[in-house]
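Note to self: keep these together.
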Amino acid sequence: MPRNVAVSRVTNEPQTLLVSWTPPAVFNGLITNYTVYCDKASGSSTMTQEISVGPLSASMNFVGLMPFTTYHCAVTANTSAGESDLSSTAFATTDESGK
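Structure:
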């Protein structure tokens, strides 16, 4: 599974969060893509927003999020053997709109 997952605000983009990670320490085959999951941190463990990115990616922006809202995000690595377990979860809060 991907490691060192971090989520941070993006300067001058109040409704965007940057999700970053490092590749798994142990590979279970050639990574075909990563899946980044994020959702509002409302107490639910279900993550309803997901985006797939290429195997050489180590970060991506989640855009169009709600202002002044806390999100939790996690990442999986995908190979021909399937999807890894979810990484540890990281949290961040978007800025207020226009701030």
